[in-house]
Amino acid sequence: MTILLEMKDIYKTFPNGTKANQGVNISVHEGEIHALVGENGAGKSTLMKILFGLETPTQGTIFFRGAPVVFQSPKDAIKLGMGMVHQHFMLAPSLTVSENIVLGDEPRTGPFNLFRNRDKERADVTNLMQSYGLNLDPDELVETISVGQKQRVEILKVLYRGARLIILDEPTAVLTPQETDELFVSIKALVKQGYTVIFITHKLREIMEISNRVTVLKAGKTVSTLLTKDTNQDEISRLMVGRDVILRVDKRKAEPKDVVLSVHELRVKNDKGTIAVQDLSLSVRSGEIFGIAGVEGNGQTELVEAITGLRKAMDGRIKYFDQDLLSKSVAQIRSSKIGHVPEDRQTTGACLTSTIAENLVLDVYRHPEFKWGPFLRQKKIDEFAKVMMQVFDVRAKHGGIMAGSLSGGNMQKVVIARELSKNPKLLIVSQPTRGVDIGAIEFIHKEIVKKRDEGAAVLLISAELSEVMSLSDRIGVIYNGKIVAVLENGPSLTEEEIGYYMLGVKQQEERRIAE
What angle do CA 446, 429, 201 make, to 5 degrees? Predict the structure, then answer.
């Protein structure tokens, strides 16, 4: 096959001394889906930022269609036919789908192109959607569409600007399994039309399903490039982490005791004012992991926010032991031995403009251990951060580094370290391994199981059905804001069985759910 892109001996050292890339080599064939994998901090994102003109390499050469190229900005990359869809969407929520797609490159008309040509804009966007099967309502506001639809808008933005080489950075990190399947259909359709895709992901199943070849990075260096058909998940994970990784969750049988959390007939509205949680009931006992399975958007977010005090409930009861949580503030809930790992680490999980150390003591800095009178005990905070970073394998030089500069996986470890260090009696974890590499997934799963074995009650919410089935002792299936089944997890329970309840095809009797 024709080589479209080569990056040879790429080095990148940042002003603070961080060596992100140390002699990376990668070649991408025209018309292939090339997976790029590696642990958090392996240098994937930096390498792609260099390719897209967002960073300049310290050393090395980029060849595009056989000719050396130098990118001073993304404009240079776009001119050559490259496009990048970032992990965190870069969309204007208050604009329509169509306005987002053409933003900055709107068709103009009239003298000196003074006026925006709305008719041409709409026609161009509609034709683009039809050509690639990425159908959306061009007039719908982006703030009202689903996450999967936002992903389509990002891809359409790239296609609108004429990209032939598309870089997808963790494109499925926030997608449901159904949305992921739809995305894969779209990607394969693009490749059939002559496009080339670089696919950055942590998910080994996705690599095996969609890619033609895979390049593995470790510690800023190229470890290997493999034909996907000639390798397997075990080999890729071993190359990424440098050791064998246990991809299954190894845990003993649960020994549940008293009910720690009980939710009864809960009703909660979403941001649009419609009822997202309706008459929902569940209970979680100490020493068990109660997993919630369901397609995202069925009330999981609103349920967790109601339990943690972030959203007011319309009706119902939430009991934590004998305490009524609905009458308590967020601060009171957080001081009650309740840990919460939120689904969005960037907006509600971490303070990006604060240091790692500050994030780790975010809600305990008033404790005498960290405060003396009006003054913070900075040395104690730094010592605590150092220990937590070692225990939870947060890969940064020291606790004084800003949380916003961390990779997604390392930021997630900071959030989990903070919540688990409180030794919670109730631990609520939402999407605990979203956008996290396999080595970190293995670690996070072990920590969640460890808390269960220490007697904590764990409420797990994950869009990854395999994760829910691997970790949970009991599984509650949520559909249309209601728990429609509570299933004992075991060898006989299948994804297909859970899927029927997730789609609303089946529903348990009320008395069985309440048991």
Answer: 70
Confidence class of residue 511 from pLDDT cuts 50, 70 and 90?
Answer: low
Q: How far is C-alpha 323 from the chain's CA centre?
A: 33
For the cut 80, the answer to whether the pLDDT of residue 247 exceeds it is no
- Interatomic CA distance for residues 25 and 32, integer angstroms: 17
**pLDDT value of residue 514:** 52
Q: Kindly state the helix (H) or strand (E) to which residue 1 belongs, with its residue range.
A: none
Residue 150: closest CA among 90, 234, 67: 90
SS3 sequence of 363-410: CCCCCCCCEECCEECHHHHHHHHHHHHHHCCCCCCCCCCEHHHCCHHH
Is residue 357 pLDDT above 90, yes or no? yes
DSSP H helical ranges for 193-275? 204-210, 233-241
pLDDT above 90 for 265: yes
Residue 430 in contact with residue 300, Cβ under 8 Å? yes
pTM, two decimal places: 0.70
Q: Which sign, positive or negative, has the C-alpha torsion 441, 444, 448, 450?
A: positive
Distance CA 104, CA 108 (A): 11
